Prior knowledge:
Order of helices and strands: EHHHHHEHEHHEHEH
Oligomer: single chain
Distance between the termini: 20 Å
Amino acid sequence: MSLSLPGRVVVFDYGEVISRTPHAARQALLAATGLTADELFPVYQELRHDLDRGDLSVLDYWRAIGERTGRTWSVSEVHRLWALDYTGWFEVDPEVLDLVEELHDAGTRLALLSNAGFDFGDPYRRSPMGSLFETVVVSAEEHVLKPDASIYRDTCARLGIDPAQMVFVDNRAENATGAEAIGAVGHHYTSPAALRTFLQQLADAPDEGATA
């Protein structure tokens, strides 16, 4: 029997839930920059919040990383770094995406909510994966990051649902908790098997607020 959650909308995070952790891309970035992991990735992650909030362009993001790490990169060099990083995020976990497709084919409504830069919006929407989601919300386009309550509420508004109808899946516990704070059901993603178990238990549980 296919997994189905009638009356609910399952909203997925993308990075390290649907996508795999880009280990190979990260190694390629170290080789391309000549930096160590301890030099590059703390700055990469810290500045990522500004990129994902839409406050930095891709070019400004990488040049800020260069400034913080003692490097100066031309546009062509930044483009190479961006391409290594960007393409690394598009290797998906087939077990998770198959589960998303299973939900979709059984009639469950689905959406995507991702902390990501402007450059991810169209690829999310126009990729084969994107065909499974009725709504895609990208943080840079909203100028707000999870776990700010407004981004969950705006997602619900676009879907035309009450927060109690949303099931939100994210690999960061604080983001799942942020969804729960507005009345949604949150799941801290750790593995495809645990996600399937969670969704199956939710499907089997008595309906306590979801509506068709």
